[in-house]
Amino acid sequence: MVEFLHLICDYAPGDLAWAEVLSALSVNLDPAIRLHTTSVTSFDTIATGFLLAQLALASEELRPKNLLLFANTAPRKDKKEAKTNNEGEGLLYAKLKNGVPIVVVNSGYSLSFLTDELKELYSTNAKEEGSQFRSRDFFPQIVHKAINEDYSFLLHKLDPKDCIPPPPNRVVAYIDSFGNIKTTIRSNDDAISKVKAGTRLKIKIGNIVRTATVATGIFNVMEGDLAFAPGSSGHTNRFWELFTRGGSAWDQFGHPLNGSAITIEEPV
Fold first, then answer.
1. Spelled out in words, what is the top-level CATH class assigned to the domain 4-163?
2. I need a labelling partner for 140 at 20 to 30 A (CA). Which of 19, 35, 74, 109 fits?
3. What is the dihedral of CA 193, 195, 201, 204, to 10 degrees?
4. Is residue 226 packed enough to be buried (19+ CB in 10 Å), middle (13-18) or exposed (0-12)?
5. Residue 208: strand pairing partners
6. Helix, coil or strand: residue 146
């Protein structure tokens, strides 16, 4: 039985969309189930996938007991043609190797960071058309069934290779509230796997180039310095972050969007 429901959606905190979705989800929901919400920017499936993997793959000591994750970022970019009757991307159900269940819209990179951890992946009978606001009108019923382990909503077993793209390589993944730039560059990436702490690297995002110091942690650099180091995300193969101690790396790089390409140049 699910005890903790975590929702990741591309609604602004406090937005009417959040209010309506939470209201719909709360209908007939066991009051003992705890709810938590996390917002990403509109249509941002990179951040959605990044957060989904970080939360779903946390160790048992750091993960709520009996967790269900619902990720809903649906830019409706699966087809460029005009949408018939508000048709959108399908809703999937996944279970990870660690047992965590996920209900997620099959959009962009929403599942890309979890491909190797999937034990089961299914399409569902959630309606894909007929409402501009499927998150309120259709998806809560599927989430309720998943909470109650009623799997009558499952349709076809899927092969992740056929419907999930690989995660984007060397791009901005997520900007946290401190202005730290979390990237999709992992510790085993050839670009940084052999770089020693203290090395100065030229890093380019968009049209802006900055020099960063390779560090082993946030506090291994002087106040105000731009650093590049393994961050707090990625678990056993951590993602690297750009951060400015006491400042904002995001400001220094001119507020790049998630998905912006990152180029690591030769050491200075």
1. alpha beta
2. 109
3. -10
4. buried
5. 205
6. helix
Q: Enumerate the domain spans of the chain.
A: 4-163, 172-267
CB 261 within 8 A of CB 171: yes
Q: What does the block give as tokens for 16?
A: 């009417």
Q: Return the closest-CA partner of residue 170 out of 188, 194, 158, 152.
A: 188
Q: Is the pTM of this model over 0.70?
A: yes
pLDDT averaged over every residue in the chain: 91
Which contacts of 242-248 are long-range, i.e. CB under 8 A and separated by 24 or more positions?
242/180, 242/181, 242/183, 242/203, 242/212, 243/178, 243/179, 243/180, 243/181, 243/218, 244/179, 245/218, 245/219, 245/221, 247/179, 248/178, 248/179, 248/180
How far is Cα 45 from Cα 43, in angstroms, rounded to an integer? 6
Which tokens go with 241? 């972050």
Which CATH fold would you assign to the domain 172-267? Elongation Factor Tu (Ef-tu); domain 3 (2.40.30)
* pLDDT tens figures, 236-252: 999 999 999 889 999 99
